[in-house]
Amino acid sequence: MPDLFEDVARRFKSFSGGRSRGWRMDDGAVKAAYARWAPVYDWVFGVVFNSGRRAAVDVVNELPAGRVLECGVGTGISLPDYRRDHRITGVDLSPEMLDRARARVSTERLGHVEALEEADAGDLAFDDAAFDTSVAMFVITVVPDPSAVMSELARVTRRGGAVILVSHFADQKGWRKMIGEVFAPLSAALGWHTDFQLGRIMGRSDLRLAQKRRVGPLGFFTLLVFERL
C-alpha cells in the first residue's frame, strides 16, 4: 500500500511539475491517477468517504422513484445503497474504475443500474432534462473545469429535480481546516483539492440551494442539495 501511494504521488508530482496548491489535474492526469488507485480504492477510501456517500444517497432515497445520474461513479461502491425503484446511470472518466463498477453490478445483481458509461462530467452526451436527480460525490473538487460540470449537471436534470453534491470545501476553519492541510498530500495524489472554494459553484440562476449541512467524520464534508429551476 505505501508503495502504491508513493507511486501515485510521484506520478502526480510529475504531472504537476512540483506544483500542488491551486493547481488542477487535467483529464489525462486524473485518469492516470485513478487507474493506479482502482484496485484498492474501496479499501483505502471506502471507510473514509462512506458517511459522505451515504448522506448523498440517503437524500436520493427520500425522493420519488426516478432516473438518477451519478457522476464520478468510480468503482460503483454506492450503487447497492440506492433504493431499487430508482434507475441509476453512472458515468466516470476512468475505464479501470468502471470495470470494477460493472463487476459489482454483475456480482451483486444490481438490476436497478441501467448503464455505466465512460464520460467527461463536463461534456455529457445525455439529452436535456434526462434525469430526475443528478449526484456528484467527491467529484467537483477534482475536475479541471468545475463550472462546466455544474452546467452539465443542471442541464441534464429536469426542472424541479435535484442536484446533489458532497465534498470537502475550503470554507472550513479551525481544526477542520487543519485536518484538510494534514491530508493535503493524499488529496493531491487523487487530484482532490482541499483549497477548493465553495463560492466557485454557487450563485447559479438555474440552481437554488435547498440544503447545506456538514456530514461525515467530524463534519469534515459538506452536503449540498440544489433544486433545478
From TrEMBL:
<dbReference type="GO" id="GO:0032259">
    <property type="term" value="P:methylation"/>
</dbReference>
<protein>
    <submittedName>
        <fullName>Phosphatidylethanolamine/phosphatidyl-N-methylethanolamine N-methyltransferase</fullName>
    </submittedName>
</protein>
<keyword id="KW-0808">Transferase</keyword>
<dbReference type="GO" id="GO:0008757">
    <property type="term" value="F:S-adenosylmethionine-dependent methyltransferase activity"/>
</dbReference>
<dbReference type="InterPro" id="IPR013216">
    <property type="entry name" value="Methyltransf_11"/>
</dbReference>
<feature type="domain" description="Methyltransferase type 11">
    <location>
        <begin position="69"/>
        <end position="165"/>
    </location>
</feature>
<dbReference type="InterPro" id="IPR029063">
    <property type="entry name" value="SAM-dependent_MTases_sf"/>
</dbReference>
<keyword id="KW-0489">Methyltransferase</keyword>
<dbReference type="Pfam" id="PF08241">
    <property type="entry name" value="Methyltransf_11"/>
</dbReference>
